[in-house]
Amino acid sequence: MRIGALFLLLAAGCSSPPSTSRKDPLNVVFILADDLGFGELGCYGQKKIRTPYLDRLAAQGMRFTRHCSGAPVCAPSRCVLMSGRHLGHAPIRGNKRAEGYPEGQHPIPDETLTIAEVFRKAGYATGAFGKWGLGPAGSTGDPNRQGFDRFFGHNCQGVAHSFYPSHLWRNSEKVLLNAKPVPGHAKQPEGVVRLEDWTGERHSSVAILGEALAFLRESAARPFFLYLPFTEPHAALQPPVDLLDTYPREWDDRPYRGQCGYTPHPRPRAAYASMITALDRHVGEILKELDRLSLADRTLVLFSSDNGTTHHAPGDAQFGVAGVDAAFFESTAGLRAFKGSVYEGGIRVPLIVRWPGRVRPGSVSAFPSYFADHFPTLCEAAGLPVPGGLDGVSLLPVLEGRDAPARPPMVYVFPEYGGQFAVNYGSLKVVRQGVRTKQPGPWEVYDLDRDPGETKDLAAERPELVKKAVELLRAQADPNPVFPMPAPVLE
User: Same structural domain for residues 125 and 203?
Assistant: First the structure.
């Protein structure tokens, strides 16, 4: 952590009084799904997949309907969440592999200030359990060097493609999980696809959940910040076997053979639904443990997803990547596009917040928000100084039912999937696709209040908004040689 950031942290003041006393500090649990679509929870309109614990969490707290992730893919989205800086300022803007390491993604620089560092500096126990994706063990992005006392899970997103991997990481220690790991990517063009051929001995999520629950028990006597980036429902389709038969066999009229990436499965639709129900079950176990430890009343719980649902794949009319059938489940709830896109289907995600005594049960907010907002929000909620240099706005007034804060533009500078820009002004959104291709697409403008599916381009009617967005992007998009993007232009 850079010295300047520490000085700002210590010198800054809070914009509202601390929400908890020194005797009864606020705990924070942030649960992050992986590739969960906006419409894949019951409380967001899902009709086929069971999510009783998350539906109950929404009934006990606030459900956001206009929340967006930090990016349309994993690593940069998590970087925005951890750093509180949007994609024009965040150091990680894509899913680039780390050079010089056997596994892992390009690491967060040492000078990056993370939310975990702020909470640890304030005396909190800090733990991360799940998929990290922001730097290998021993790198500057190692979670132990970015504010977490304890880490257990997948350091590398690629290893996390299998739920039966050879190993996980406990801090800097590689922990053997399966002597006979199951690959995350394989094909079976012919023959009967048998579940037992693609099932290992120890499921990674079971091990990760166990370590997270142990952290809760061991940290119950002091304030804690618990980050739970679970891997579900990201492929491969390898849910706990016991959940499969809770979904109808008639859903699946043919097996998935790995033709669109990842591993085969005999019942892909049932498997995908089971992945999300398994995620819901993990959330339920965490909530039950908070109740058993008498911590629920002083714990702020947040649930969201790192980006939208898995996208289509060429060559198969039914299956998307990994055998996911997003159309069958109406995963995007009518939003345009999928993971990898700055259209709403790629970045609009669920956000559920429970805070007993502060957030009204069963409340709903349409305030536009995104991952950069969580850093200032959690600092202010816990009564900690909010560092300077963050790009988000505190959502505390929204959570408490007060007047909403002024919404700074939500900025996306995404170099992958052809290169994409987006600026969300709240109700109006400016987008450009293909900026790193030989034929960049035109600037587009959408009114998200009237047209959430982004079907009617208003660019011809609102040229001044395009000009405004280009000027903002020029000012807000820092050069980044690791993740280069051309300068935004009007043409």
Answer: yes
The number of folded domains in the chain is 2
> Would 130 be classed as within a structural domain?
yes
Q: How confident is the model at residue 135 (pLDDT cuts 50, 70, 90)?
A: very high
My answer on whether 116 and 82 are in the same domain is yes
Residue 5 lies in a domain: no
DSSP codes of every residue in 273-334? HHHHHHHHHHHHHHHHHHHHTT-GGGEEEEEEESS-PPPB-TT-SS-BGGG--HHHHTTTTT
Q: State the number of CA atoms in the 13 A half-sphere of 221 facing the CB.
A: 1
User: Is residue 249 classed exposed, middle or buried when 0-12, 13-18 and 19+ CB atoms within 10 A define those classes?
Assistant: exposed
∠ Cα 323 326 328 (to 5°): 100
Nearest to 301 by CA among 36, 62, 134: 62
Which CATH number covers residue 447? 3.30.1120.10
Tell which of 373, 393, 408 closes a domain. 408
Structural domain ending residue among the three candidates 379, 408, 437: 408
pLDDT per residue over 94-109, tens digit each? 999 999 999 999 999 9
Amino acid at 315: G
Task: For the full predicted model, state whether its pTM sits above 0.70.
Answer: yes
Asked if 359 and 420 sit in the same domain, the reply is no
- Classified as helix, coil or strand, 154 is strand
- Cβ(393)–Cβ(373) under 8 Å? yes
CB atoms within 10 A of CB 408: 16
Q: Half-sphere exposure (CA, 13 Å, Cβ side) for 372?
A: 23
Asked if 61 and 123 touch (Cβ cutoff 8 Å), the reply is: no
Domain extent at residue 209: 25-408
DSSP annotation of 403: P
What pLDDT sits at residue 10?
36
- The whole-angstrom separation of Cα 392 and Cα 432 is 22
* Lookup: tokens for 28: 């924070």
Q: For residue 11, is it within any domain?
A: no
